[in-house]
Amino acid sequence: METANKTGTIKDKLIFEFETSKLFLFGDTQLRDQSMESFYKQGIPDRKHEEYKYTPIASMLKGEFNFSTTKNCSDEQIEELKFLKGAYVVIIENGILVEGLSNLEHLPKGLTICSLVDASKSSSPVFEKHYSQYADVNADPFIALNTAMTKDGVFIHIEKNVIIEKPIHIIHIATAFENTIIHPRNLIVIDENAQVKIVESYQTVDSKAKIFNNALTEIVVDKHAIVDHYKIQDENDDFGYLLNTTQVIQKKQSVFSTHTFTLSGALVRNNLTIVLDDEHIESHLNGLYITNGKQIVDNHTVVDHRKPNCNSNELYKGIIDGKSTATFNGKIFVRKDAQKTNAFQSNKNILLSEDGTINTKPQLEIYADDVKCSHGTSTGKLDQEKIFYLQARGIGITNAKKLLMHAFASEVVNTVKIEALREYIEAKIAKTFE
Amino acid sequence: MLSIKNLHASIDGKEILRGINLEIKAGEVHAIMGPNGSGKSTLSAVLAGRPEYEVTAGEIIYNGKNLLELAAEDRAREGIFLAFQYPIEIPGVSNINFLKTAIGEIRAYKGLEPMEAKDFLKLLKEKQALVEIDRALISRSINEGFSGGEKKRNEIFQMAMLEPKLAILDETDSGLDIDALRIVANGVNKLKSKANATIVITHYQRLLDYIIPDVVHVLYNGKIVKSGSKELALELEEKGYDFIKEVEEIEA
């Protein structure tokens, strides 16, 4: 690796920061070095990079950045973000788990929630077995960067046969007075026949400068486990830049449902990968993005069918307004062994403005011969016939459009099984339509 | 209540209505019959304010107001109701939420207080019984997965809920079996009063056995070529529309 220096490109700055801080970071130094090496080779992807064609991260990362994890927001501001009553709450502020503000007392038997730093220090065997085993540092520069530079995050472990009734709410807070880059990381391990609901919310609070949140979550769903996973991305439209990698591995007969709601943020890039690594697995991927202004939202999903007799079902919907750009890229792999696979994908968009852009690209790669796979995309305006029908009953054009947008979104919103969360999302959506 | 004078309307530059004259008073039922393509549905679309149609000449005065200056939603708020020939499905919008929004906007337009939730539910129950529509249908999304008959019945249910002054039934009988036709007609009859008027647009005479019209008009080639009592409908049924065509040609 070349000698890093503090001035120069963002890549140089990241390497310099890494070299000067790595001794203070938790865990395996070798893994971090290798990851940084990989990041150095891959670099920050520019628009020539096929996978990042519509996500101008390189141009966003120009100018000065620091890597401080200083807290800026008050305890009261954080309390307001706890919108799920009765949940186990994990507060992660600028990538660091803040135990004092989290609600982790009285955890039931079989549930562990602690910081990644603590999990690493205590040499938890579950942590050591699974940490950084699924998100491949050579597959994506931001996985490499996160693995090299992460300072903390949450480790959650649900033991065999344990059912956690209350949801676990991980609140990621990004807050910056100067341009900042953070790399929070989570590892969630759900053992055999366990059940849990996990909500990750991403918010910017009290920011006056760009904050680039390179967040990564690995989720291990062991056999017969049932997991409901939600991401609510609601960052600041001027300062919030989020690259959210979610890497999931599923084992035999497990059910994993994930829901991604992108409601605001200057730039949001989701890299969601689910590997179906055994038979009789069920995976559900639901997404809803509502964009406006100059927002850029890019959802890349990968569903990797490796074994026979599995089902995956994907539904992403978007409402695009203003000069915003939304991208959906959905890859489905059906490997040679994955006979009797059922894989379905659908991406539907409503374009409300002349200046909005939607890029949609389904990519199916099928190497097995006895499978049922389908994909479909559609992009259109609000249906004039429907608007007229509502008008003909006395409903004004503004409310008619709102009703239809709610109707369009409801197909995804209705997949939310936690009632309080569904209400929260509905209220948020209603606000974005005002 | 409604006065149409020399109404000309076109769509995509093609003239469909070529000088309609029609006077309707409160308490009356008018039937408009005519062969396919005569302009029946265009007339209902123009009355309801469908934006694709362009009125090129003439006027429509409704309760003293120039109807053509009102947006579609304002016409509905003023008491005009179109029962659609082909009611569309709107998945994701429940009938209840839809009607609540509609009634809310209509009341706000009239300067009335919002309706209390319990009054709304009472009204819903009452009208549901009146038009004999299944409660399960009402709680579903608008017309989603409804049969043809259920859709038509839902139109009449909406009409009952909104209590219009002028109801226009655009081929409400098409696609209905005799039992459904009776139920729909029965609903319409129960909603009739001295204060409101109904326009029944139909291709066949059968519906008029159940909804008895005061006047029957025959629309042909964008004009009302003949008006008469309910017997005219029977005559038309018997002789067919060719008889009108012949009359028209002779007159021309």
Automatic annotation (TrEMBL), chain A:
InterPro entries hit by this protein: Fe-S_cluster_assembly_SufBD, SUF_FeS_clus_asmbl_SufBD_core, SUF_FeS_clus_asmbl_SufBD_sf, SUF_FeS_clus_asmbl_SufD, SufBD_N
Domain of life: Bacteria
Listed GO biological process terms: iron-sulfur cluster assembly
Matching Pfam families: SUFBD_core (PF01458), SufBD_N (PF19295)
PANTHER family the record matches: PROTEIN ABCI7, CHLOROPLASTIC
UniProt name for this protein: Iron-regulated ABC transporter permease protein SufD
Organism: Flavobacterium micromati
Domain (SUF system FeS cluster assembly SufBD N-terminal): residue spans on this chain: 30-170
TrEMBL record, chain B:
Any GO molecular function: ATP hydrolysis activity
Keyword DNA-binding: no
PROSITE patterns, sorted: ABC_TRANSPORTER_2
InterPro entries reported for this sequence: AAA+_ATPase (IPR003593), ABC_transporter-like_ATP-bd (IPR003439), FeS-cluster_ATPase_SufC (IPR010230), P-loop_NTPase (IPR027417)
Keywords: ATP-binding, Nucleotide-binding
Pfam families from the UniProt entry: ABC_tran
Sequence ranges assigned to domain ABC transporter in this UniProt record: 2-246
Protein family membership: Belongs to the ABC transporter superfamily. Ycf16 family.
Classification via PANTHER family: ABC TRANSPORTER I FAMILY MEMBER 6, CHLOROPLASTIC
Name of the protein this chain belongs to: Iron-regulated ABC transporter ATPase subunit SufC
